User: What shape does this take?
Amino acid sequence: MTSSPADTATSVNKSTDPTQRMFGEIAPRYDLLNHLLSMNTDKYWRWRTTKIVPPITEGPLGEAPILDLCTGTGDLALAYDRAAKQKVKITAADFCPEMLEIGCKKGKKAGVNDHIDWVEADATALPFETDTYQLVTAAFGLRNVADTEKGLSEMTRVCKPGGKVAVLEFTTPRRQPLRGIYGWYFRNVLPKIGQTIMRNNSAAYEYLPESVGQFYEYEELTERMEKAGLSNVIYKSMTFGVATLYIGEKN
Ligand SMILES: C[S@@+](CC[C@H](N)C(=O)[O-])C[C@H]1O[C@@H](n2cnc3c(N)ncnc32)[C@H](O)[C@@H]1O
Assistant: This one.
């Protein structure tokens, strides 16, 4: 199921999946909110991800493409494209056409859509062949996937042996006083800014702290990545544990 979002005239997502619908509603302001609420730190987290797990541009793995799953408006896919100096093909996939459409426009503006494919796909049933990608990434996306285990097993399946799976997610800082400050900001400040900017579409920014609070962190997610078939799974915390990058290898 490959579609070109640039050709999709959808302005209202009629999906019955509440997550898909929610991202469809916030898509036009997603980038603004992301940068505002994280005080632009989200850009650093994605850049740092490309440094910790760099793209491979030479050898047999260098010929394999990169998959950025739950790509949303494509910022990690575009960061990898810059890191690879346009030498690697990239698939940017998401199940929300409105988010993809914005990503596709950004790719077009940057003049990189000759080697980035914007593909509508569900993370739990990927329309890609087994053992295809040198690197499979998901930034702030896995938390939203209804079935985490299925998402991880699909990411592992489409990764090439010798390749890597990298998951960037919000985490709760482990140390005080940052843990307390972060919890307060997430529960009180962030939903209010979200509500103000989104007006009546406030659900997304109430959903964010809830979804972060409920998602697996640190060792728990590491274990799930191992269960999905990945080896040598490690994690690296960024910005005092506000975001964490999990990396696993496929043998
Ligand atoms: C918080 S956004 C993250 C977007 C982007 N990766 C970033 O770094 O800003 C989460 C994205 O995950 C997508 N998503 C959630 N569940 C999905 C699924 N089952 N399959 C594909 N995409 C999904 C949403 O549509 C949304 O675009």
Q: What stands out?
A: The chain is about 45% helix and 20% strand. The two ends are 28 Å apart (CA to CA).
